[in-house]
Amino acid sequence: MLNFNFTYLFTTVLLSCSPVQNTAEMKNDFTLISAKKSTWFGGREGVKGAIYNIVLKNNQSKPYVFTKFKYGKNSVPFIIKSTGSNIYISANINMNSPLPEIDMQTGKRVDQIAEENDVSEIVLEYQISSSKENRSLKITSISEVENSSSKDALPN
Length: 156
Prior knowledge:
By secondary structure, this protein is mainly beta. The chain has a domain at 25-98 and 117-144: Immunoglobulin-like, CATH 2.60.40. It contains two helices and eleven strands. The strands form three sheets. The protein has a five-stranded mixed beta sheet, with no helix packed on it. A four-stranded antiparallel beta sheet has the order 4-3-9-10, with no helix packed on it. A two-stranded antiparallel ribbon has the order 7-8. It starts with a helix and ends in an 11-residue tail after the last strand.
């Protein structure tokens, strides 16, 4: 009898300590449909940038707010539009390289090597419902597009 009670107690404690998997919490909030980057060049030397267009599918029914678009260590302004369950996010990032300097002794132009901010991932921070908890969505697979038009950025 004592052995039965011990086994029952041990099993009860073991089952109560195991994590309960809630399917709603296991499901991702958003699914990445596409992430595209297109590079642009300005009219002046050293002026260039990139436009990032990201399309997500909303997998949950709670209200959400995207708070940050992080490019490397920097947060950049972004535009967001949603139609149905799809969310369209667009950000324009300037990557200005420094202008060439002139060597005062020789009068010759000295090209500076611009530090490229090589970013292999974009991080979107968001909040679900009225929670103040910041969640993040890392986007690591970004495809390069040769030319982009403004009509590709957001739907009408």
